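INFO  loader      accepted 1 record
INFO  loader      residues=293
INFO  predictor   begin
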Amino acid sequence: MSYLSSPRALTALLLAASLAMPAAASSSSGQRSRTPAHADAVRAANRAATIEPVPDAFVNAGAVYPFSDNAVYRLYAAPERVSDIALERGEGLVAVASGDTVRWVIGDTTSGSGADRQVHVLVKPIAAGLATNLVITTDRRTYHLALTSSPGSAMAALSWNYPEEALLAIRRAQAAAEAAAPVASGLSLEKLDFGYQISGDRPAWRPLRAFDDGQRTYIEFPASLAVGEAPPLFLIDDKRTASLVNYRVQGRYYIVDRLFSAAELRLGADKQTVVRITRGPAGEARSNRRRAS
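INFO  predictor   done
INFO  writer      dumping tokens
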């Protein structure tokens, strides 16, 4: 009689197996209980991020999506049909990756030249009923697409518009227009008084000059003012008392709707940076003559 055919041995083997089974079952059950929650979260996120083509999205036969980072754009393809994915003009292709490169034929080409050069990624499934994803990286952004093939109609083309870039372009144009605009209209050169002295610390934003037109004082800053924190302006009276004054910012200029003898630009708390603007004697005399007349 062999060992395994012994009744005592069989009993011991079955007992050991029965003791081991609950632990394994518990481990397997625990894994199954965690997996659905994880999978559900992924599926829910993908569904929420996927943008489907709708009738209003089409311009002629091409769907035009508004671009958003990490969104997933659906493209419906069909066998024996090539679908064109057109990138932004001037955008450079870095790489194209797909989850299925066996049953999907994927290539790229370009149209136009110079600033109008445009990259096209071309996709074609070899059969219906296929689904995979496509990731396109460029020198500007990353595109995520969900590819689905069916025996029906295929999307001829897919492209994007770029609302954020358009808004940035508008803001840049507005900033350029403001910078190019004159600081004030109707200024007469013979009325301008440049008799101001600038002293004190030398931060990057230290004013280049100050002048007035007899009614308003203009303080001109370097271009670096736009990339840092702007210093507030304080008027200094005869008792060396500082008081914050109202002013408006136009481009690189502070415009104060009054004249002053002394003012300070102050920035910082513990170790304060101070730049002093003082009106010279010639300017004071000129202002007195204006008031007298």
